[in-house]
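S1.2 Input.
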Amino acid sequence: MKYYKLFLFCIFSFVINCKSANTISNTQIIESTENAVIIDVNAKNPEYIAIHQLLFRGFPNSSQTIPLINTSETETQKKFPEYFKDFFQENRYKSFITSSTKNSNGSYRIIINLKAIRLDLEQNSIIRKFGY
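S1.3 Output.
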């Protein structure tokens, strides 16, 4: 019985200390206004991660806590496949990155033109205008 409890404790400790495989990146908001978001991203593909998080998850502790696209990511991409194919696979999302520079710690400082990306989503009927 003693070994059984020890075994359960070890398994429990292991599960608690494991990091999630779904962790994409570490992002830190530097500044957020109605026109732009400045973030530091520590990831392999920082520009993609920053835009993807802005669209489907938002940034906690910023003026953009709510994602630009409120519906399910999968549902939205199925509803507008051509738009998202062009946007992500053809790297059109990079046109909304105002600046991307590498920091001394290896992360990237990215500035996203929030106004332009919101307008593009509205013009392509992905989202509706506020109050519409």
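S1.4 Remarks. The first helix runs from residue 2 to 17.
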